[in-house]
Amino acid sequence: MSDYQVTELGALDDWRAHYGGFVPDRSREGRRVVDHELPMQFIGMTANALVPGEEAGYWHTHASDEELYVFLGGEGQMGLDDQVVDVRAGTCIRVGQGVWRTWRCLPESPSELRWLCIRADGGELPHLPDDAERDEARPSPW
User: Fold this and answer.
1) Its domain of life (predicted)?
2) d(CA 5, CA 12)
3) Coil, helix or strand at residue 56
4) What is the distance between the alpha carbons of residues 130 and 121, in angstroms, rounded to a whole number?
5) Separation between Cα atoms, residue 86 and residue 92, nearest integer Å
6) Does residue 7 have a pLDDT over 90?
7) Buried b vs exposed e over 1-23: b needs ≥16 C-beta within 10 Å?
């Protein structure tokens, strides 16, 4: 028997209807933790959507995870340490360990900002990224 599983994320326009997170008290609309649905061992992935003008509302960093952000629609910005990078469909950003990150969908974006976040750290990933640190008091860079 082959070792594979299939799930459907739905059309990009349906992503905002997702509701999820790594733990219930940090779940939100527009997030789906795909590696909680598929038995992933070494990689993790979330599917995300923010409406125009919405922002994450927090910063976070990882001690051992490396993340790849693949933007699929909308227009937004990512805060990366002390810099702000514009993002849109086709933008890919690799973020290494120890880099603080946050993101937002621009108020004038023609559509929701949609992206995949793919993470790995060279070994088995825990169900909850336990190398993460959040700073909800850090002000947004915009």
Assistant:
1) Bacteria
2) 21
3) coil
4) 12
5) 11
6) no
7) eeeeeeeeeeebeebbebebebe
The one-letter amino acid code at 51 reads: V
Model confidence over 91-123: pLDDT tens digits? 999 999 999 999 999 999 999 999 999 999 877
Rounded distance, CA 118 to CA 68, Å?
A: 5
Q: Match 């990689």 to its residue by tokens.
A: 43
- CA dist 128 and 24 (Å) reads 12
Task: Tell me how long the chain is.
Answer: 142
Tell which residue, 42, 67, 35, 38, has the closest CA to residue 125.
Answer: 42
pLDDT in tens, 54-78: 999 899 999 999 999 999 999 999 9
| Gap between the Cα atoms of 31 and 113, Å rounded | 12
Rounded CA-CA distance 21/13 in Å is 19
Identify residue 2 by its one-letter amino acid code. Answer: S
d(CA 142, CA 135): 16
Q: Which two tokens stand for residue 139?
A: 């002000």
Q: Which of 139, 69, 62, 130 is nearest to 100 (CA)?
A: 62
